[in-house]
Amino acid sequence: MKIDVTTLEAKKAGDIELSDDVFGLEPREDIIQSMVVYQLAKRRAGTQSVNNRALIIGSRKKIYRQKGTGGARHGDKKVPQFRGGGKAFAPQPRDHSIKLPKKVRAMALKHALSAKVKDGALKVLESASVSEPKTRALKDAFGKLGLTSALIIDGAQVEKNFGTAARNIANIDVLPVQGINVYDILRRDTLVLTRAAVEALEARFK
């Protein structure tokens, strides 16, 4: 399929042929959802730690005799019923990540790209570069392109001035092509690829 290519000045700069194997699939929500769950689980730190009964420092002596006190039967003071005791079923450090086959992860990215094409939410820029790192000027350019919430994917490296100018604009993310991922594609309304990004993605999935 063909799609128009524009410049940052909102002028047409020809068109580009998109591979149907990457951008022309029928999106599958189950694959995309599995990838989002995988990404969000993998980014969880899993460092929560609360002292359980075994980790509380204190005497293990029985606090009073078993019978004859009129009170409930107890062992030591480290049990959860007492103030300062350990927490029952306390969370401990753990790995929250789940397994997802590499082929499924690759397929999920293709389906996310295809979903943006199907929704008409994919734009292709000739290049993502500016002469000066001016946030206001770049914001005005995005306004002409109708970009209010967008993920912009450049080639192997983001042009320094462009990255500097874009980093303070709300709801605009800029990544090199190696950093493209399903979650970031979905969390923004529009996906913007440069020519270099399109070529890199198609080469990646050959």
- Low-pLDDT parts are none
Q: Mind telling me the CATH superfamily name of the largest domain? A: Ribosomal protein L4/L1
The termini sit apart by: 17 Å
Shape summary: elongated
CATH architecture identity of the largest domain: 3-Layer(aba) Sandwich
* Mean pLDDT across all amino acids: 94
The count of β-strands is: 6
CATH topology of the largest domain: Ribosomal Protein L4, Chain: A
Query: Helical element count?
Result: 7
Number of domains: 2
What does this structure look like?
- The chain is an alpha/beta fold.
- It has two domains: 2-44 and 98-204, Ribosomal protein L4/L1 (Ribosomal Protein L4, Chain: A, 3-Layer(aba) Sandwich), CATH 3.40.1370; 47-95, no CATH class.
- It has helices spanning 20-23, 29-42, 102-118, 135-145, 160-166, 182-187, 195-204, and strands at residues 2-6, 12-17, 122-125, 150-153, 172-175, 190-194.
- β4 (150-153), α5 (160-166) and β5 (172-175) form a beta-alpha-beta unit.
- The longest helix is centred in the middle third of the chain and has 17 residues, at 102-118.
- It is elongated, with a radius of gyration of 27 Å.
